[in-house]
Amino acid sequence: MYNLHAGLKNELLLMLYRRKTLFFFILAAAIPILLALTFHALQPMLGLVAASSSYPIQMLNLYTIFIIPLFLFLTIADLFPQEISARTLKIVLLRPIHRVSVYTAKILALGISIAAVLLILAVVTSACNAFLGSQELGTINWLSYGKAYIAAFFSMWALSAVFVFVAQFFRSASGFLVFSILLYAAAKVTPFFLKGFSSFSLASYTDWYMLWLSHTVSAGKLITSSLFVTSGLILFFTLGYILFDRKEA
């Protein structure tokens, strides 16, 4: 447990020291503000509400499809292929630390970074909604927003497990990054040509949070989809660790 705690602390510090991580955190806060200010400036001409009551959910859709996946690809590239090419991972694996602790620390750090991006988004969009929109903080439906953001977190974490597994086949960060973007784009486009593919693709669950906002979705469907996302997270976490454990020190 001590090794896991120390490894997690080390991974989080390394993330914070990377400029791209800070850039994405700043970007996560800046995009909603800039869009809200733009809508607010155009309101007299177009009659638009700067930030409607659904603004946090609208921005969540943008982030789960584009921003967070890109953040995941860059972060995973640093956590695995980049450390292999820079030989820093070799130094870690030569220490008397269980590989499962090293691997789990990286996955947990990845999950915490996803949660941080979503938390920043939730706080900023709620503030924009209150100060530039049509809804006060006291009237926001925090329960619905909370369910949506928690569901988005688990779907993004499950998606990250898929690409952590993919990362084990690469020794180059740039090669992994290009392949991941192409693979993700293919996974998003394939359902338009192959019927039923979306039911078995975690990439199709980027908008899974919408099910939790709907009042017409049955409890059975929510349970089934939750089991699929959870099993996908566990499956690819395990497969990724099997490959990670076989790497030579």
Q: How would you portray this structure in words?
A:
The protein is mostly helical. The chain has helices at residues 2-17, 19-46, 55-79, 81-85, 88-93, 99-131, 142-167, 173-189, 209-213, 219-245. The longest helix is centred in the middle third of the chain and has 33 residues, at 99-131. The two termini are 22 Å apart. The model has no long low-confidence stretch (mean pLDDT 86).
How do the strands and helices of this protein lay out in sequence?
Layout: H1 2-17, H2 19-46, H3 55-79, H4 81-85, H5 88-93, H6 99-131, H7 142-167, H8 173-189, H9 209-213, H10 219-245
The amount of beta strand, in percent, is: under 5%
Largest sheet: none
Structural classification: mainly alpha
User: How are helices and strands ordered from N to C?
Assistant: HHHHHHHHHH
Report how far the terminal alpha carbons are from each other: 22 Å
Arithmetic mean of pLDDT: 86
- Count of β-strands: 0
Comma- or semicolon-separated keywords:
249 residues; globular; mainly alpha
Give a quick summary of the entry.
76% of the residues lie in helices and 0% in strands. The chain has helices spanning 2-17, 19-46, 55-79, 81-85, 88-93, 99-131, 142-167, 173-189, 209-213, 219-245.
